[in-house]
Design a protein that fits this description.
homodimer; Rossmann fold; about 500 residues; alpha/beta; about 15% strand; seven-stranded mixed sheet; elongated
Chain lengths: ~500, ~500
């Protein structure tokens, strides 16, 4: 069998791209997407195909695929639905190995569309053609500067892969990854998944050396059993975090009309995730928050959280959120309490969360963190409030914009090293250290700059105590999966429950 | 009985402030908080009290309260715990009417602290002294430029009141309100609530003309029945949104050591909220998202959501989130579908969410919105994706920073009017229009600038489809409360369930 990375090379690392339906008319997809591809700096050859134009966006245009004096690896197809099938024939004849069908109006629309889609599927399968879509927003492969997609959003290269059954959600996820200062390895808006299904991309990404973690948005599965088998195998190699929509009756109806997906119930999908070792996210923010944590954090050996906080209320919120996320917040053993007693003031709360209380000193945070990392009763740390650890000058009352600017610069300069040290300690002790904090300077864009600065070094500072709990729970769920042998797929699920009729549980 | 607004005037609108424990030593609370008070531009008189200093931060210092040649309205107290009680005596003798006790080390610490607190309570009650704290972060009253608080965060004056049993959560809430471009009327970090309880502040804020909506963070109640009665009465006048922490066993333990609060179970608090007409938030973001919506949105007549979306996946996520938040997503009646048929392309999904599909035109969004507002089957609208409504020039591929800057400026200029029109339509039809969107330009700080620009006009653009659902559900919950007579308090609750022992349900 062909190596899967080799097989997908024409899709994610093509040497040349034919663009069927290329256009000079601004606002047309054939113009926007071709413009994005050229604008993103793709270094391979690009062949616009259009029967009526001589040149398109400065490139020589070809009347048909057959006229191109080359065998393009990839074809992008934006022609109307009834014409797609013929273009597929031409692709196969021309030796094209992969195509992205942007065009909508297939199974998601009506019976006639479903027939057109079926025809496309049969031809692509017979011709061994990798086919993305139809009804999709495109693909991106930032390490290759390949941007075959609608949205004007250009993620930098990175280790986070995105596979989504919705173009706008795919883009929302990419934006969130970028806001965290991280980059993207591969981006797929998989649309109707007529030929290539979500699990096919997962199988490729498992072996793709550019990808460290896979984020996915799904509305439903064509073949739930196959998803379960493949995702189970992939998640032994790399973490998969999934946001699943359509779990309510109203959501399932919307999914049906959106991508013709049979959504299945929330409870069923929870079982699928547990069995396949997939981490489940509740929304797009959770998806990205959990996803980026896998890039750098060590995996915890269990679900027991040690919380250390510079503020009492944040500690209470984190403790609640841990329990709700399926973590434990154990009492600390006497030896850990005694160790903390040696440097914390006598009125410290002697509990978990460890409340560092007001007036604390810089080294208390480091010592406290080390105590918790050393504590056998704790598998991972949630650290709330980095302010005490920051070596910046105090703010004067009502600081001027110049002072704020100066402190912000100090803060940004200090933050990278601070998080380097957190991660060093995390890896020394083999326990994740998940940090959520606000900052001692109040400046509206500080968070954004901080995220970018930290993301460059693959660090994250979360905004809420709840986010830290969600992330630690995600790390713990994946860690369990890598430790324990799983039952063979299919044991807990009846076939129709995940791939059959859309009998929904309303949440 | 004295008018409650008059009664609280010495606290939130004092003409003069005595600062007992004022200090010249940087880093001491008596220095930081006094500095903040002076830096914030308070226009009343300020009297530092310190037995050892002649001047403090440029002001003449007094040896004792009795030496001040004035009757200060408010005293701020930062002296050590054993000295507080004596200062309270002096306050009463000097005719001080309100005080803020920042000092910690009372009931949250140990038995001895609890006794000191009890002594303080008895003296304050006997002397008719309003007392905030102890163990608190202070108060702010931005319309009066009064900033008696630790954090260097200066919210502008506005209509959102914040009452929190945690100083750091209070500050986190204030930061979030500011990030939305809104301002604050009153800010209270209520600490141990030895004398003034959460519900006392609510009672005041109900009549405070500066306050439009009340956001509160609570860990527990001293007297659950009293809270229920007062909150029930207040919520007939103004919306109260509450984030309740300590609902899990681990959270309750943390709350006990933080503010000596008996937290009570989540289920009990849900019942309290329903009965008192209080809107419950799940986290700090939800709290502020829901809170600011009350400033401008009309209240819905029911729980039926109409969703209109520029992207399919966002629509599915919103439909799921609506159902989970207790809203319905009804099918649209034939006449509404027919009306939408007249301008949407033939392949539109004919469902709710109304998916405006790719390639849509600007007026489709406005016409679609009007159709849903006119539709009798719908009580409130969720509008996802404002991009089609924006009259900005298309982006070139891989836009330069200058082009992004220019488009961002156009976008910011257009957004205020866009939201003005949304709100105009909302009020014309008496149905809320809750908007969540991303923006056609990808620029890291656009969201922050957009929030500030919209907030100036009391508009909000939410970041996630789920946020829009949460907000619409919050508006609906409050609307039900204002419409229906509620049963008399205490019917559904046994006394010990909300004020007695901390028997927790672990979620």
């Amino acid at each position: 069998m062909e190596n899967i990375v080799e097989k997908f090379k024409p899709l994610f690392s093509p040497r040349s791209v034919a663009f069927v339906g290329a256009s000079n008319r601004p606002g047309k997809w054939g113009s926007i997407i071709l413009g994005n591809l050229l604008g993103a700096g793709f270094e391979g050859r690009v062949y616009p195909v259009n029967p009526k134009e001589k040149t398109i966006q400065g490139l020589r245009a070809y009347r048909a695929l057959a006229d191109i004096p080359d065998r393009p690896d990839l074809a992008v197809i934006v022609v109307p639905p009834p014409a797609v099938s013929t273009v597929i024939d031409q692709c196969i004849t021309a030796g094209v190995r992969a195509c992205v069908v942007i065009t909508a109006g297939f199974a998601e629309l009506d019976e006639a569309g479903a027939r057109l889609q079926q025809e496309m599927v049969e031809k692509a399968r017979a011709g061994g053609l990798l086919l993305v879509g139809p009804n999709c927003n495109g693909i991106m492969s930032p390490p290759e500067k390949l941007h075959v997609a609608m949205p004007p959003v250009y993620p930098p290269p990175g280790q986070v892969a995105i596979v989504a059954q919705s173009g706008n959600v795919a883009t929302s996820i990419a934006r969130r990854v970028m806001k965290r200062g991280f980059g993207v390895s591969r981006f797929v808006s998989s649309g109707n998944e007529a030929v290539l299904h979500c699990e096919d991309y997962l199988a490729y990404l498992a072996d793709d050396p550019r990808t460290r973690v896979i984020l996915s948005y799904v509305e439903g599965f064509r073949d739930g059993r196959r998803f379960l088998e493949i995702a189970g195998a992939v998640s032994r190699k790399k973490p998969i975090v999934i946001l699943k929509a359509g779990g309510t009756e109203a959501g399932a109806r919307a999914a049906m009309s959106h991508t013709a997906a049979l959504a299945g119930s929330d409870a069923t999908f929870d079982a699928v995730c547990r069995q396949a070792g997939v981490v489940r996210a509740r929304d797009m923010d959770d998806l990205v928050n959990m996803g980026v944590s896998f890039v750098r954090q060590p995996l915890p050996g269990g679900r027991r959280a040690g919380i250390i906080t510079a503020g009492g209320g944040w500690g209470v919120l984190a403790a609640d959120a841990c329990v709700r996320a399926g973590l434990q917040v154990p009492a600390l053993p006497p030896e850990t309490l005694s160790e903390l007693d040696t440097f914390l003031p006598p009125w410290w709360n002697r509990g978990n969360p460890v409340d560092l209380v007001a007036g604390l000193q810089r080294e208390h945070l480091w010592k406290g963190l080390e105590c918790l990392l050393r504590c056998d009763a704790v598998d991972g740390i949630i650290l709330l409030g980095i302010m005490p650890a920051l070596p910046i000058k105090p703010l004067p009352p009502r600081p001027s914009p110049e002072v704020i600017e100066e402190r912000q610069a100090d803060l940004l300069a200090a933050a990278g090293e601070l998080f380097d040290r957190f991660m060093e300690m995390a890896h020394d002790f083999g326990k994740p250290v998940v940090v959520a904090s606000e900052f001692p300077v109040h400046s509206p864009d500080l968070e954004i700059h901080m995220a970018a600065r930290l993301g460059e070094r693959e660090h994250v500072c979360y905004a809420r105590p709840e986010d830290a709990a969600t992330v630690l729970a995600g790390l713990a769920a994946y860690a369990e999966n890598t430790r324990h042998p799983r039952p063979t797929p299919g044991r807990v699920l009846k076939k129709e429950a995940i791939s059959g009729e859309a009998k929904q549980n309303v949440a």
